Amino acid sequence: MSELVGHAVVLLAAGSSTRLGQPKQLLRRDGETLLHRAARIALETGPEVFIVVLGSDPSAYQAALQDLPHETVINENAASGMASSLQAAASHVAGHAQVLVLMSDQPALSTAHLQRLLDGARRSCSGCAATRLQGLAGVPAVVPGHWFDALPQRASNAGFRARLRALTDDALVLLPAGGLELDIDTPQDLAHARSLGLLDT
């Protein structure tokens, strides 16, 4: 099967926010939920396919996205790790030359960063581009669609991380994080983001 020319997007939003104690997807920046904001920004890159992966109780999150064009995929096994969400989206995106993978809990996310990742992946011999997080490749990232075909059957929390980090420096475009190091996992992360003006109080 030949690869589709346009890119696809997978927005991972199935996490239960256990450490934070409240749904981080529904935290707000400038009155907009982080989930809606991430989806809106992802759509600004012009994907052919846009998949949002949600967990087993998706109603509140679906309501937050109702004005945006997207396809919802439910991951009943979200607690097992990120790879299970990628597996849930695999059949929808595997035929695309480029798949942009992002999370919903990075309040500094920008369209410009995502577009630079897509542009960088087109130039890269591996077809990959990632964000430098603590010196290593992380998300948001762009990977070839065929990587989804090779996901391990046993879900883990690694996703594509190990495969991205195994690429040589000349095979991977690695962009500075520009604030994306801050994701919202704990109450301390939430307080820090609010102190920087990245989240509403």
What's the quick description here?
This protein is α/β, with parallel strands linked by helices. The chain has helices at 34-43, 59-64, 82-93, 111-123, 161-165, 187-195; strands at residues 8-13, 28-29, 32-33, 49-54, 71-74, 99-103, 129-133, 136-143, 173-176. The strands form 2 sheets. A 7-stranded mixed β-sheet has the order 5-4-1-6-8-7-9, sandwiched between helices. Strands 2-3 form a two-stranded antiparallel sheet.
Report on this model:
- A seven-stranded mixed beta sheet has the order 5-4-1-6-8-7-9, with helices on both faces.
- It is α/β, with parallel strands linked by helices and 201 residues long.
- It is built from six helices and nine strands, in the order E-E-E-H-E-H-E-H-E-H-E-E-H-E-H.
The class by helix and strand makeup works out as alpha/beta
Estimate the global geometry from the Cα principal axes: globular
Total E-strand runs = 9
Compressed to H and E, one letter per element, the order equals EEEHEHEHEHEEHEH
Kindly estimate the percentage of residues that lie in beta strands according to DSSP.
15-25%
The largest beta-sheet arranges its strands as 5-4-1-6-8-7-9
Low-pLDDT residue spans: none
Rg (C-alpha, Å):
16 Å
Number of helical segments?
A: 6
The major sheet is characterized as: 7 strands, mixed
Residue share in helices? 25-40%
Q: Can you give the mean pLDDT?
A: 92
Query: Terminal Cα separation, in Å?
Result: 49 Å
